[in-house]
């Protein structure tokens, strides 16, 4: 069969369809995806990544301290040389041997060159050993600081995420209140027109409506600001940020001693401070070792050359030297500088040790505080869930009472306001519980990504306090 050619309109439709299929779609991002995007986009995290890249070069420096070193020097210029030798022995073919011969050479402003090649291998050097420990400790500090940056990024993403979610929830509550109050305001106006309600009911509804509109404008601004914060942090478009308030949280029954033991063993701030102690100890050892002897294996070869004219006419001198051996270096006196530096290093070491004790105490206090928030937060969520259910029932009863004349419009507006406040308080309590759990995970040394995954799991598990509370 002959091939059929596509008409221009058909070709255009096919091309458009293929482009639509190939175009990237803006996909909604959850909390884990927001953290992954922040890892690639956040500026401060990029700075920490660059600092982390210094770890391996520092390890390479530490290893190179005990490798051989080779250096070459060369000099060229104008120089002068005067030599005077007394009592030398001279012998030459046809001249015999002479004793007590004097030799003198002189070159003034002649061409001078000098070169030297030297290699050395440290054999015993306590100062280098302490410096090696300092470099390895600095590499470990870069590694731990990178992990701390990941934890801090996870906390910033979570706070920005839930901050936006709370603002959006508050805006949704205000929208629901506005719709209800608009309906009530219209009903009040209709009843007033029929002579069935006083004008005060209409004024009360209109006042409440105006107040809600003002609150909604302020909340819209707050949502826009928090969307900008999360967008700047993650680089994701606003349309992809589906930050939603948690509807339930999972219970955590881990006892306080277990959290404290995990924090004592794995807390990154404690590890960083312990590394600071190790670094101060290595600095003190390095200064103490500066007054110790060192031994190096050395090999060198060089040549000095000069030629020109002097007091005895034209002259030329070449001197070549070579050496292979062991070099001993013993510091003798530094005018008291070395002793002062050692005392300073010891004082700094004591400071870091005291800081380590303070950090350990602070971490224990933070773990206790976060655990209390977690333990009481579950009861708070359960209580607020019951309060919201009661507020919903009260609102329904008040609306019914207003219809039959037992309740006023002001009673309905008050019930609407209390129901909205209870809903927001419950959402805030769930968010506070999740952030307390994230803080505990951070204090126990868990990586930021793993902590956020556990947080997401806590939001998707339904066996929890307050999970069935009415919203």
TrEMBL record:
The protein's matches in Pfam families, at most eight in alphabetical order, are given as: OEP
Q: Which InterPro entries match?
A: OMP_efflux (IPR003423), TolC-like (IPR051906)
- Give the keywords, sorted: Cell outer membrane, Coiled coil, Membrane, Signal, Transmembrane, Transmembrane beta strand, Transport
GO terms for CC? Answer: cell outer membrane; efflux pump complex
Q: Which Gene3D superfamilies match?
A: Outer membrane efflux proteins (OEP)
Q: Does the keyword Signal apply?
A: yes
Signal peptide as annotated in the record? 1-28
Localization terms from the record: Cell outer membrane
Extract one GO molecular function annotation from the record: porin activity
Q: Which residues form a coiled coil?
A: 258-290
Task: Write down the PANTHER family for this protein, in alphabetical order.
Answer: OUTER MEMBRANE PROTEIN TOLC (PTHR30026)
Q: Which family does it belong to?
A: Belongs to the outer membrane factor (OMF) (TC 1.B.17) family.
Name the record gives this protein = Transporter
């Amino acid at each position: 069969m002959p091939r059929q050619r596509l008409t221009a309109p058909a070709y255009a439709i096919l091309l458009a369809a293929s482009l639509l299929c190939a175009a990237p779609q803006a996909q909604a991002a959850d909390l884990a995806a927001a953290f992954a995007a922040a890892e690639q986009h956040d500026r401060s995290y990029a700075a920490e990544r660059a600092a982390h890249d210094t770890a391996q070069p520092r390890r390479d420096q530490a290893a190179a301290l005990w490798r051989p070193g080779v250096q070459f020097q060369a000099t060229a210029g104008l120089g002068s040389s005067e030599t005077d030798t007394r009592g030398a022995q001279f012998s030459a073919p046809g001249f015999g041997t002479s004793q007590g011969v004097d030799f003198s050479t002189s070159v003034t402003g002649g061409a001078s060159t000098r070169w030297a090649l030297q290699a050395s291998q440290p054999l015993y050097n306590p100062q280098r050993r302490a410096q090696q420990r300092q470099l390895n400790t600095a590499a470990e500090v870069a590694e731990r600081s990178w992990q701390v940056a990941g934890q801090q990024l996870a906390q910033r993403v979570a706070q920005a995420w839930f901050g936006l979610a709370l603002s959006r929830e508050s805006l949704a509550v205000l929208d629901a209140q506005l719709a209800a109050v608009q309906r009530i305001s219209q009903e009040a106006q209709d009843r007033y027109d029929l002579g069935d309600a006083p004008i005060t009911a209409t004024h009360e509804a209109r006042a409440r409506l105006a107040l809600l509109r003002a609150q909604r404008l302020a909340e819209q601004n707050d949502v826009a600001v928090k969307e900008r914060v999360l967008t700047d942090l993650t680089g994701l478009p606003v349309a992809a940020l589906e930050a939603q308030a948690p509807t339930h949280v999972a219970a955590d029954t881990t006892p306080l001693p277990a959290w404290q033991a995990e924090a004592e063993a794995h807390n990154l701030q404690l590890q960083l401070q312990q590394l600071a102690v190790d670094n101060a100890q290595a600095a003190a050892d390095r200064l103490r070792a500066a007054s110790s002897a060192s031994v190096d294996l050395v090999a060198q070869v060089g040549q000095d050359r000069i030629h020109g004219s002097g007091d005895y006419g034209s002259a030329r001198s070449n001197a070549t030297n070579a050496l292979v051996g062991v070099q001993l270096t013993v510091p003798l006196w530094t005018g008291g500088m070395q002793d002062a530096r050692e005392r300073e290093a010891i004082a700094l070491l004591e400071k870091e040790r005291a800081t380590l004790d303070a950090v350990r105490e602070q971490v224990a206090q933070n773990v206790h505080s976060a655990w209390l928030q977690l333990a009481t937060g579950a009861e708070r969520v359960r209580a607020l869930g019951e309060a919201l259910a009661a507020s919903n029932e009260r609102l329904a009863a008040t609306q019914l009472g207003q219809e039959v004349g037992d309740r006023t419009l002001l009673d309905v507006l008050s019930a609407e306001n209390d129901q909205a406040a209870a809903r927001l308080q419950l959402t805030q309590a769930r968010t506070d519980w999740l952030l307390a759990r994230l803080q505990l995970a951070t204090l126990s040394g868990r990586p930021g990504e793993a902590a956020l995954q556990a947080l997401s799991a806590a939001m998707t598990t339904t066996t929890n306090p307050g999970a069935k509370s009415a919203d």
